[in-house]
Amino acid sequence: MTKLVINSDDFGYSKAINLGIIESFNKGVLTSTTLMANMPGFREAVKLAKEHNKLGIGVHLSMTCGKPLLSTVDDLVSNSGEFKPLSVIKEKPEATNLEQLYAEWKSQIEKILSTGLTITHLDSHHYTHSMGKHYQVIEQLSIDFDVPVRNYFDVKSKFSYPNRCPMDSFWNLFNYPEIKDMSQKYQVMKPTIFTIIEKEAQKYRSNNQVEAVCHPGYLDETCYFGSSFNLARMREVNILCDKDFKKLLDYYGYELCHYGNL
């Protein structure tokens, strides 16, 4: 069987996103999530994580959203005091101060560990650990804290120790225009959605271990005005909680798990 981690990013982003993630775990196939240490929903997310201790909890390292935890990382922030936007990082990833990035990301990990939670793995908001030389920072943190890292496309091939990325493949689960189309109700779109998902399920079942990433959530003002990806998060909750999705994964031989029980 193919071991499949279904991970939701953005735990801690806001109250509504937190609730959508927990719903997707309690009533659906979600097995894992990664927590943002610098966002408004952090404290509530920690509380929810402790109430649902079978949900894998990783760290969603941020350098493009919200404010840093440290006051000594001037090179990572804009004039507003918030992290530089993704567009700036993508344009010149080589300009990142790696020492400051290491310090900030280390602080984010330590904040989560200070709550008593056990972390299962590391990844990053907007996949920034794959940009420039940021992979060097997350690999060192993986070694320092002895936790694995999300294998996002070519990250594993760049690592000095590729075993820090245990997954064979990265499945960007719902990243299709048809799935994100919120112009019609879920039941209307479901046949189209499941055609896409089934094709992908056939593709990835040849691997031993796969991570599928998703972004379920409900809406509040923090999400609606703060994230360019908002309405379609509700669609992802619907799919993850649909019993037909679990049946499809069972049919193609997927064993659900999280990084902590690989």
Note the total helix count: 11
CATH-derived topology:
TIM Barrel
- Which strand-content bin applies to the residues? 5-15%
Largest sheet data: 7 strands, parallel
- Overall pLDDT level: 96
Number of strands: 7
Q: What is the CA–CA distance across the termini?
A: 12 Å
Topology overview:
Layout: E1 2-11, H1 15-26, E2 32-35, H2 42-51, E3 56-61, H3 86-91, H4 98-113, E4 122-124, H5 134-145, H6 155-158, E5 169-172, H7 177-180, H8 186-204, E6 209-214, H9 221-226, H10 232-240, H11 243-251, E7 254-257
Parallel strand pairs: 1-2, 1-6, 1-7, 2-3, 3-4, 5-6
In brief:
The protein has one domain (2-261): Alpha-Beta Barrel (TIM Barrel), CATH 3.20.20.370. The protein is 41% helix and 14% strand. It contains eleven helices and seven strands.
Task: Give a written overview of the molecule.
It is a single chain. This protein is of the alpha/beta class and 262 residues long. It has one domain (2-261): Glycoside hydrolase/deacetylase (TIM Barrel), CATH 3.20.20.370. Helices cover 41% and strands 14% of the residues. It has helices spanning 15-26, 42-51, 86-91, 98-113, 134-145, 155-158, 177-180, 186-204, 221-226, 232-240, 243-251, and strands at 2-11, 32-35, 56-61, 122-124, 169-172, 209-214, 254-257. Strands 1, 2, 3, 4, 5, 6 and 7 form a seven-stranded parallel β-sheet that branches. Helix 1 packs parallel to helix 10 and helix 4 (98-113) runs parallel beside helix 5 (134-145). The radius of gyration is 18 Å and the shape is globular. It starts with a strand and ends in a 5-residue tail after the last strand. 43% of the residues are buried.
